[in-house]
Predict the structure.
Amino acid sequence: SLAVEFDLAFNHARFEDAPEGEDRIPGAMEAVLAAGLVWDAPQGPYGGLRVRYFGADPLIDAPSVRAAANPIAHLSLGYALGSGVRIWAQLINVLDEQHNDIEYWYESRLEGEPAVGVADRHFKPVEPRQMRAGVSYGL
């Protein structure tokens, strides 16, 4: 069976009682896309391509500090042998994107920095391109 998945969301979140230009809600994503094309079969070949996109979202209440937009794609292929045995492979981060999976803005302090800390980005990068493979069994 062939399935096409597509989810798209937009957000215009703002604090109600804040002055214009200082009313953004940190971490409130303004655009999100998740899409996929998946072929599944109880026996024989199967696979899919999934794409995810997070738009540039505010990290503070002003629009001047934003997380970068973050697209990523994953590909999976496999073969169902029957009797619940499947051989599969996944290519994670197909295009080897160099973005951050998640970003925050807050004060932290490293050795030698002022006691009050330094406001800066804190992030987790997306996983580098990699291949995963395996065999699974399920009833």
Notes: The chain has a mean pLDDT of 94. The longest strand covers residues 70-82.
